[in-house]
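Whether sequence alone determines local backbone shape is best considered at the level of individual chains. In the encoding step, the backbone of a single protein was reduced to a row of integers, each denoting a local shape. For completeness, the protein is quoted in full, as a sequence line and a line of structure tokens.
***
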Amino acid sequence: MEMRVVEDIAIGRNLTPPILPIAAALHDSSRFSHCSACFSPLHDSPDSQSAPLHFLRYCSRRCSSLDSSLHFSSAEFHLLRHSPAPTLPETSDLRLSLRLLHLFETLRLFSRDSALDRIGGLMTNRAELLRKEIQEDMETCEEYEEVSERIREGARAMAAARRMRDGLNLESSLAEDCAVEEAVLCLVLTNAVEVQDRTGCSVGVAVYGPRFSWINHSCSPNSSYWFSTVPSSGAASSGLIHPKPTDGDNRNGSELINTKISFKFLSSLGIEEGYGPSLIIRSIKNIKQGEELLITYTDLLQPKVVRG
């Protein structure tokens, strides 16, 4: 899948309205200094060393009412309260995965009998990230083993948290199939982006819908993106970009994608709730009508000192 522009675009033009995330989670280091719903910085930050591990903070009653129930229903609370800190030094990707998994289950986007190469139109790359074939390059093999073990360990922690939420026996979670948890964690590792504040520092991670996730990455991009924590209504697309299937889309995964229906549906996820760090895509070059939109994970419109 790829995204193309529908008209000639001048440099420096916003190509989308603010895009709300499907799900987002602060880094552990930011949970006590930023709002867990909108990611806005908080004026008074308690000492993170004395705060409970499962503690989340919000900037307003509205943000608390929007997000706190998901904190419990997704089992994020249980993961933070019972996770073994030495083996899980950073939990943001796991917490984001739990939030997404809860949403996917609520919307019935998959079942445990489903093929898990694509969920809700987003690729998981599970087979690639967990492949067991021996690599010819020993260094590459070790890297794959490290990533695979991280995914499996994280999936087990997610499964244990979900069983705690449901009041089930924890011991059986070690032996149960964690394929769903693995798939959603792989989806996060494949599609999530680092959410940056105004200074360019990463404060969390988020997964956005196809209006962003279907844009391909390139070392020669023609667009970039920036974040905003200002409340957004999640307005409809301005229509400047549109999805286009690639030759491999009909063969890639067992979930057949109806481009127009999937794009409209997935782009609406998260909009009703109306919270989270929004993302705006902007052109950094003149782009001709019909040209593919390409991004890089570094904001090229940031000052050079920020880009590092």
